[in-house]
Amino acid sequence: xxxxxxxxxxxxxxxxxxxxxxxxxxxxxxxxxxxxxxxxxxxxxxxxxxxxxxxxxxxxxxxxxxxxxxxxxxxxxxxxxxxxxxxxxxxxxxxxxxxxxxxxxxxxxxxxxxxxxxxxxxxxxxxxxxxxxxxxxxxxxxxxxxxxxxxxxxxxxxxxxxxxxxxxxxxxxxxxxxxxxxxxxxxxxxxxxxxxxxxxxxxxxxxxxxxxxxxxxxxxxxxxxxxxxxxxxxxxxxxxxxxxxxxxxxxxxxxxxxxxxxxxxxxxxxxxxxxxxxxxxxxxxxxxx
Amino acid sequence: xxxxxxxxxxxxxxxxxxxxxxxxxxxxxxxxxxxxxxxxxxxxxxxxxxxxxxxxxxxxxxxxxxxxxxxxxxxxxxxxxxxxxxxxxxxxxxxxxxxxxxxxxxxxxxxxxxxxxxxxxxxxxxxxxxxxxxxxxxxxxxxxxxxxxxxxxxxxxxxxxxxxxxxxxxxxxxxxxxxxxxxxxxxxxxxxxxxxxxxxxxxxxxxxxxxxxxxxxxxxxxxxxxxxxxxxxxxxxxxxxxxxxxxxxxxxxxxxxxxxxxxxxxxxxxxxxxxxxxxx
Lengths: 289, 280
Hints:
The structure holds two protein chains of two kinds.
Chain A: H1 2-9, H2 14-30, H3 32-52, H4 57-63, H5 66-98, H6 102-110, H7 113-116, H8 119-129, H9 136-143, H10 155-183, H11 187-195, H12 200-228, H13 232-237, H14 249-259, H15 263-288
Helix pairs in contact in A: 4-15, 5-10, 5-12, 8-10, 10-12, 12-15, 14-15
Chain B: H1 5-32, H2 53-59, H3 69-100, H4 106-118, H5 125-134, H6 141-164, H7 170-177, H8 182-193, H9 195-211, H10 214-219, H11 228-234, H12 243-279
Helix pairs in contact in B: 2-12, 3-6, 3-9, 4-6, 6-9, 7-8, 9-12
């Protein structure tokens, strides 16, 4: 627009164009540090990693490693179950915190604790609680007359423990997001519903959910991308044990690269997940903007 | 809304269950930090013989596992402080450009900021390691700080930008008419006005770095140079780790974030909420 106007009007518009150019230079200058960070510490590493991962032999190597295949499944299970279960429960719980009651106010304060506590202390507490010999979980089970179980020594329960921790830690945050989302729904909609005699479940189905659907989808997708790269939960909770059967992408890449010295295998692990991750990111960027 | 009958019962049951689920692991962590070594292998729901011995051992560094506690604490603090300072600089400058200057390329910049915010930081760990090795930065605090700045800045820019654009544009224009250049406007007008979210952003950046494990474990090694979470992870390398001491360190390490979160939770949540809700 500006440029066509400048060519038509000629010299008259020149100062305006100059000012506009000056603004662009100024804007880019203020964003200078941000742009440098992006170019040198985001774009360059990604390009470098893709370059390192160009060798096709890597993929035939890692795809014939059973640990790698199992890790892909673990990641899908971890991200799929943990994120979706968490989001669903968060949506349901957000109704609880929307109830104006003393109990829910007290609870909403304490509810933030898991989110506030850093990952390592929380994971370590879970790990000790689930310890087969000295854990409190087995102790309680024994007291109730059940057999204890070596939770972190069997693959299914070890993965489940990682999922449970993820939900414990991040449920509060997303619940708060949905509570805020509910507050932004116009009250008139519910009042209209009440006049029509709508039942609570119908209110949820016809008013709350349609109003929150976009928020729900964005949050789910965002949380999935974040969790795809999760390192610390598996690393600290199971360390990949038993027998490298509970790795996720990041912990396996760490093992390949820094413990086995196969840097190209590590790169290959991330590159395999890159298309899905980038797709999710681009959907999100288009959605959020 | 008033609750009656079975709905009231259900409400109390769900709230109580949620309370136990939320608080129990924290309670257990604190409890274990007060348990003497002899009782560690006798799981109980309460402390039979409470002691502050674990805290004393940690503070006096008299246990092998925490022999460098204060040095490592300082490493965590100094890395977090450097990150905070740098994120504030990058964030305020970037947000000023995006919020107050209409310029070509601002859309591209906001996209790349969002991209950096979303991409899982672990995906870049291998090229980052190579990069830091090439520049001989492995083992230095700077290496960790650089990565922390990269991943903490986008959120800072978004929050400050969101706040900055609510300031009426007349203020800048009035200043410009008075002959103030862009830098003067930035320092004298913009910075004081965005002070409230800057406090929240400083907290966010500090905690982002304080909580980081992966890059700290990748880049730092040696008792003297590691941060607190790396030291905690090292407990797992042996079978006879004193878990009561580990839980003591856990409690101490969790105190600053818990205080910060409770002071600034409104800012931290509302920032992301306005972003996400506005996006729908």
